[in-house]
Design brief:
CATH topology of the largest domain: Rossmann fold
CATH class of the largest domain: Alpha Beta
CATH architecture of the largest domain: 3-Layer(aba) Sandwich
Number of helices: 13
Distance between the termini: 31 Å
Helix content: 25-40%
Structural class: alpha/beta
Radius of gyration: 31 Å
Number of domains: 3
Number of strands: 27
Low-confidence stretches: none
CATH superfamily of the largest domain: HUPs
Length: about 550
């Protein structure tokens, strides 16, 4: 949590009121209940960040519980990824790691209670027939012809369902509530379905699995959860959860709904993210273009930046759409204070200093951070052959181009003032190198006679340069609302073809030779970069986390 401010929102107000009234014996116990069927994305941080923060603020507890009720889509890989991401964000469930599958036996016994009370029945309707019988928002549903089976018959059939006697989809267990209820969730919802699938924890012990709406509230009750937060779309499910808890006469957690958020130029639908991964549109769940936490981590974004961004969004009741540029602001602000500066030339052009002594090497002193002396200084080699960025030279410079051009003098950052005298080209007219002279009296980048130059360039000594690969990541979509598209279109139609550009011949200063995956740097005048796990002993690979300037801000402003 941001220690500089005390967070305030309606959820915290509810908890403060409960504590003041002595509710739940003064306990605050929350939980985060992800389904292990995919990786967490930035939208999930609002949910689990809220729950863990509430426990921390009110001296309570927060459980991590995997709602693993659908073995067809769940994997241990997702369990481990979710745990890793939550830990990375700085939250700790301590010894309170649970699974809905821990409660399968208890949930089965709860189902028997409802059957014996005449509140649940086994139905033979197909899934399509159940949907048809349920009715619409304006028309009531109609009762299943199997709704009035006897308690004895329902107990027998439910036991046989558990024993594996029936095929998938042939029978379900439904709650007997009210087929004419205006709340469609109360029209005899399905509690159990038959699913002959191997479960990642229970193996083949079960072939019937609880529906999410049946497992969710009872799992909260078993764990003694006091405040059960969830997203606003579950508000209409609350009467169903209340009905189950009341009929079972067990501990009743308090459900509190809050709104999710959307962010421009992204998708935060798990289905869409799965489609991106399984369709090969991205390179796995940790592709740096994804909104998954694994992708953001690989991109080089810090957990501190994400937490501050989520705190800034706050907790409310209305769905909000956040401009991606706002998130980018938090990323830049965090990295600017945190990371050291380094010289790296993305698109190298050789500069030969014709009047610099052959084989001479000088060590130039660079601050590791211009605004933080505590980060110290480093020495960078300077020689008669350098690399500058090709974009920093124009043979015929346009107006207001203050960088290097024939006959023009510029400053090499913390080096010398140099003047371009000659341009060398190959047979195709491509510039291969430029030849310059230095003013030897300007070491450090300033002239003793007080003359000034407008251009300052970053550089790397050619004999000492490291070969590095640069991956320039950009937004995955070129549409601000990829999921809000015209009929007949897909969000995949709006993938940004320029979301990744690979520069294989970049050159970096030698101080980077010991950099490790996950290390972050600001490349002077270029942007923020992170060492990628694909790095090898013979070549470092860097991902661009974010540029120094927001080239998308004007576009977002125009789009409103």
């Amino acid at each position: 949590m941001n220690e500089e401010m005390e967070l305030s929102d309606f959820v915290r107000d509810i908890i403060k009121k409960d504590l003041a009234e002595g509710k739940n014996d003064g306990r605050v116990h929350t939980r985060f209940p992800p389904e292990p069927n995919g990786y967490l994305h930035i939208g999930h941080v609002k949910a689990f960040g809220l729950n863990f923060s509430l426990a921390e603020e009110f001296n309570g507890k927060c459980n991590l519980r995997f709602d693993d009720t659908n073995p067809a889509k769940e994997e241990d890989e997702y369990v481990e990824a979710i745990k890793r991401d939550i830990k990375w964000l700085g939250y700790d469930w301590e010894d309170r790691l649970y699974f809905a599958s821990d409660y399968f036996a208890q949930l089965y016994e709860f189902a028997l209670v409802l059957i014996n009370a005449g509140k649940a029945y086994v139905d033979d309707l197909t899934a399509d027939e159940i949907r048809e019988y349920r009715g619409t928002l304006t028309e009531p549903g109609k009762e299943s012809p199997y709704r009035n089976r006897t308690i004895v018959e329902n107990l027998d059939l439910f036991q046989r369902m558990r024993d594996g006697e029936f095929e998938n989809g042939s029978k379900v267990l439904r709650a007997k509530i009210d087929m004419s209820s205006p709340n469609i969730n109360l029209r005899d919802p399905v509690m159990y379905r038959i699913l002959h699938e191997h479960h990642h924890r229970t193996g083949d012990k079960w072939c019937i699995y609880p529906m999410y709406d049946w497992a969710h509230g009872q799992s909260d009750s078993i764990e003694g959860i006091t405040h059960s937060t969830c997203s606003i779309e579950f508000k209409n499910h609350r009467p169903l959860y209340d009905w189950f808890l009341d009929e079972l006469d067990i501990f009743h957690p308090q459900q509190i709904e809050f709104a999710r958020f959307n962010m421009t130029y992204t998708v935060m639908s798990k289905r869409a993210l799965v489609k991106l991964v399984e369709g090969g549109y991205v390179d796995g769940w940790d592709d740096p273009r994804m909104t998954s936490l694994a992708g953001l981590r690989r991109l080089g974004i810090t957990p501190q930046a994400i937490r501050k961004f989520i705190e800034h969004i706050g907790v409310g009741l209305s769905l909000s759409t956040i401009q991606r540029s706002k998130f980018d602001h938090f990323i830049r602000d965090d990295l600017n204070k945190r990371v050291p500066r380094i010289n790296c030339v993305l698109n190298p052009l050789k500069v030969v200093l014709s009047n610099y002594p052959e084989d001479q090497v000088e060590m130039m002193e660079f601050p590791n951070h211009p605004d933080d002396e505590s980060k110290g200084v480093r020495e960078v080699p300077f020689s008669g052959e350098l690399f500058i960025d090709r974009d920093d030279f124009r043979e015929e410079p346009p107006k207001k181009f203050w960088r290097l051009a024939p006959g023009r003098e510029v400053r090499l950052r913390y080096g010398y003032l140099i003047t371009c005298n000659e341009v060398v080209k190959d047979d195709d007219g491509e510039i291969t190198e430029i030849r310059c002279t230095i003013d030897p009296d300007t070491r450090g980048g300033s002239a003793p006679d007080g003359r000034t130059v407008k251009g300052t360039l970053h550089w790397v000594s050619a004999p000492h340069a490291l070969d590095v690969e640069i991956r320039l990541y950009d937004r995955l979509f070129n549409h601000p609302f990829p999921l809000d598209v015209k009929e007949g279109e897909s969000f995949l139609d709006h993938l940004n073809p320029e979301s990744l550009q690979v520069l294989a011949r970049a050159k970096a200063e030698p101080s980077l030779k010991d950099a490790k995956p996950g290390d972050r740097f600001q490349f002077e005048r270029v942007g923020y970069f992170c060492v990628d796990p694909d790095s090898r002993d013979d070549k470092l690979v860097f991902n661009r986390t974010i540029s120094l300037r927001d080239s998308w801000a004007k576009i977002e402003k125009q789009q409103g």
